[in-house]
Amino acid sequence: MHDDKERNEYVMNEQGIIYKGVDNYISPLHWDYGQFEEDMVKICMKILDCSIKYKRDPAADVSARCNPIYVSRIITSMVG
User: What CA–CA distances, in Å, run from 1 to 17, 49, 65, 70?
Assistant: First the structure.
């Protein structure tokens, strides 16, 4: 998003809508993101510390966590 005001509003929302389903049947679902809940950062770091990449090489894993693509791939592999 190019507009700072719109981007800030988008990022700071605590609730929103996510979409689930398949090609011909997609439905909206109201969602509470919970990013401002107390201890959320600690919980997220604890989850990341349970990943295989962290267990193999903690220093490399932690230094790569500044990359949102890396973090999303770690979480996706853990969930899958």
Answer: 18, 31, 23, 21
Same domain for 79 and 43: yes
Q: How many CB atoms lie within 10 A of CB 1?
A: 10
Q: Which stretch of DSSP H or E encloses residue 72?
A: helix 68-79
pLDDT value at 40 more than 80 = yes
Whole-model pTM: value is 0.60
Specify burial of residue 74 (Cβ count, 10 A radius: 0-12, 13-18, 19+).
Answer: buried
Do 47 and 28 fall within a single domain?
A: no
Helix 40-48 / helix 68-79 crossing angle, nearest 10 deg? 70
